[in-house]
Amino acid sequence: MSDKSKGSTELAAVIQRGWFTAGALAVLTLIEYFVATSVDRPTLWLLPFIVAKGGLILEVFMHSSDLTTLDGGNA
Amino acid sequence: MAMTATPEAVHSRAEATYRPAANRLGLWLFLASETFLFSAFISSRFVVSGTDQPEHLNQGLALLLTLLLLWSSISAFRAEAAMAHDNRRLFQREILTTIVLGVLFLVGVGVEFNEALADFPANTIYGSSFFMLIGLHAFHVLTGILALGVVWNLGRLGHYGSDNHWPVEGVVKYWHFVDLMWVAIYPTLYLFGGS
Amino acid sequence: MRQLLRAVIFGILGYLVGALLTWLVRGGSLSDEVCVVFGYVVGLIGWLFGIGMGDTWIREWFGLPARESEVSGWKRYLGFSTDHKVIGVQYLATFIVVMLLGGIAALILRFELAQAGEGILNADRYNQVMSMHGILMVAVAVAAILGSFGNYLVPIMIGADDMAFPRLNAVTFWLIPPVAIGLLAAPTLGSFDSGWTAYPPLSVVNNGGQILFVLAVTTFGLSSILGGLNVITTVVTMRAPGMTWGRLPIFVWAAFAASMISLLTTQFFAASLVLIAMDRVAGTVFFNGAAGGDPLLYQHLFWFYSHPAVYVMVLPGFGVVLETITHMSRKPLFAYKAVVVSLLTIAGLSVIVWAHHMFTSGMAEYLHGPFMFATEMISVPTGVIFLSAVATLWRGKLWMKTPLFFAMTWVFQFLMGGVTGIFLADVVTDVSLHDSYFVVAHFHYTIMGGMIFAFLTGIFFWFPKITGRMINDRLGIIFALWLTIGFQLTFLPQFWLGTNGMNRRIADYPEQLEGANLFSTVAAFCLGASFLLLVYILLTGARRGPKAGNNPWNASTLEWHVSSPPPEHNFSGQPTVVGHPYRYGTAGSRHAEFAGMTAVEQIPPEQTGTGEGGDYE
Predict the structure, then answer these.
(1) What is the signed CA dihedral for C402, C403, C405, C410, rounded to 10 degrees?
(2) Is residue C411 one of the residues assigned to a domain?
(3) Residue C546: is the preceding peptide bond cis (ω within 30°)?
């Protein structure tokens, strides 16, 4: 019982992190859109948005940290 | 111990130690390779038409598609987290949400294609890049939806648990990857040309 | 057999379903390229499903238990086997056959070129045969070593029981037959005549055979990507305990580096061919200059893969040759660490040199300098590998058997290929040599000399392991000498022809070049005839050769410490690696210990070399 409730609070924490990330991505997208439609030659201005959004997705959604533990337990 | 071990026993013991790492690495390598495919098409767009873009672009629809895909990312994320914590009901619901959002995305792409065919058909240079890139991405969304359907069904049949859900993790990671590619494709086609 | 039959039936049915549905939807003719494209795609899926992917894999996607194939013996080689050794042999046999087919095409070309004027082939037909020869041989060069020895040896050499993804591995192989069928079926749609490079605008407007070329080669690309993925994952995650990165046999390193290239850059080839298909079928205008497209885009995308592909071809060749040389000269591999660094450096540099194929294409002038410089940079790590081969031979106890003969002729031929490459890397000389027979001679020295000779080295070196029998060594050496001499006589005159104005890809030439051409043709037939001897040697060796035992070459790496051919799952106990593989000449050195297996025999001291030049730990 307590195990289960502990599991569900953990799950809630993980999901909350996901929501924060999604919120950040949405805000970044809207700012990106705003910048693109108000600046004249926006290419360079948009690159940081791509990097930031891509980084968030890789880090939080795609768990890019698994890449550090791939060696099959062999030095 | 090893003196008496049968080959099969050694085989299965070794399998258990490398399998999770091998699965993850294999998928990451595949995604790295796919990134090269997308970057080939994205760079083609800049080679043939720079950052030029036509007057008639349905910016509202594109923004809506972006947000749809983002919403499907969070539902996919929740589905994976739910399975990792053995919450099957949430898993089933969220996978289904993701599939529905993916289908909506494809419908949106269909609408977009229909409009685009009138404004900049495939035999214009921007149209070529546009249909190629959006089409490639939509194809990946479609395969993602099929894969989500497979894990939805297998989840329903009780094939997964918190310590045994690599297919879920893999499919969700692929889904996020498709979203990641959209992060680059969206400005490439809609925003770099400016207002 | 049953699987194969089912695969063929499903493939044909798939093709018909795809093509007919497309035809019903859009009308037109059944041989329209759109119908061919959809037919091919559905047919390919049907083929894979029929060959066994359906039973052993796809069923699981629907919650059904997988059905393992239960055939044994030689029939495994004709079905969907997930054993990496079976797959390695399947690759080996397939690519020897493809190589012989490509060779026949080459002889037809040389026959035409024996005299000036149009002989047996008219200009169109010549280009079609030349294109077929080109793409078949490129496929052999890309996949023959990596597919056969890469699959067969990499898992055993690192002490693993199979590849990381055995079913994917089987799919990787079974994607190859549709490629061969697609290419060989191209004449039914009018063949393709744009060479293996398929440059637009020609490849967008020529006969319908081009679409089959595009589909087949894209499938082949998929196969190399998946194969590369499998090799990398295997090497990273499945090494035996103690098999550190610094103790990997050099062939494993070479396969790893080549796999990195093929995993990533092959997508660019796929992309460029998909764009061709789109331009042909869907009406896009990527390569149509009149509508704002750019044919040079194709060349950039294409060479972004196809130059690195040269290293997909030769890096495994380097691995095979260095492996053979170190074992058969009984000496440590000279400068092991430098060789590893060089292999990885080549893999890295290979993606920033592509435009040296385009010096005369009219691309932006400012690109010439950087690409010339980068190309010449790559000769530094290549030179290191070359020096390692020579320095390992130096003062070794050379064991002059067939594999070492081949490895040594490789050294000479790769030197020729490398040195003549400098003229093509330099913009000033390339401008006049481009598109001439000098280029033809150069890349035959690098690819045939660098890759096919390494492939043959590997065949002779690992033949006892794969079949359990020895070949007739005297015949092997005769074959090595015959092939090498025939090769020089065929291709040396072509350097002269190139500098004297003979163009590539052309059926006719000025009469004053006739003498050297005739000489080259006669030599080419002599070269081609030697392959009959190869087939004879391999077949008689496999059937009647003396038993080889586990370790006929007294070599140290793991594959020589299991039976010949190795048992299922390779090792009966988990091997533990305790030392570097190439410590010949160091008393008491050992590479590995085996739990539950007979102890490793120590290398007899009279057969060890001096032990100089080691560079370990």
Answers:
(1) 150
(2) yes
(3) no
- Residue holding tokens 């629907």? C62
Residue of C nearest to A73 (CA): C237
* Gap between the Cα atoms of B12 and B22, Å rounded: 14
Number of H-type helices and E-type strands within chain C: 21, 2
Q: What is the pTM of this model?
A: 0.94
Interface of B with C (CB under 8 A): 2-8, 10-11, 13-14, 18, 21-22, 25-26, 29-30, 32-34, 36-37, 40-41, 44, 47-49, 122-125, 127-129, 131-132, 150, 153-154, 157, 159
- Number of separate domains in chain C: 2
Cα separation, B40 vs C268, whole angstroms: 6
**Per-residue pLDDT tens over the stretch C300-336:** 999 999 999 999 999 999 999 999 999 999 989 999 9
Going from N- to C-terminal start, the domains of chain A cover 21-75
Minimum distance, in Å, between the CA of residue A16 and any CA atom of chain B:
9
Q: How many C-beta neighbours within 10 Å does residue C397 have?
A: 15
CA C488 to chain centre: 22
The H or E element spanning position C593 is: strand C592-594
Structural domain containing residue C21: 1-67
Note whether A63 contacts B173, CB cutoff 8 Å. Answer: yes
Q: What's the CATH fold of domain B20-49+59-191?
A: Four Helix Bundle (Hemerythrin (Met), subunit A) (1.20.120)
- Shared domain for C63 and C134, answered yes or no, is no
- Using H for helix, E for strand and C for coil, what is the string for C522-584? HHHHHHHHHHHHHHHHHHHHHHHCCECCCCCCCCCCHHHHCCCCCCCCCCCCCEEECCCCCCC
Distances from the Cα of C438 to the Cαs of C382, C420, C434, C527, in angstroms?
21, 8, 8, 19
B157, C63 Cβ separation under 8 angstroms: yes
Give the ipTM. 0.92
Indicate left, alpha or beta for C567 from its phi (over 0: left) and psi (-120 to 50: alpha). Answer: beta
- Evaluated on CA atoms B13, B16, B17, B22, the torsion sign reads positive
Give per-residue pLDDT as tens, B109-119: 999 999 998 88
Clarify whether residues C61 and C89 are in a common domain.
no
Give the domain ranges of chain B.
20-49+59-191
Q: Is the Cβ–Cβ distance between C470 and C461 less than 8 Å?
A: no
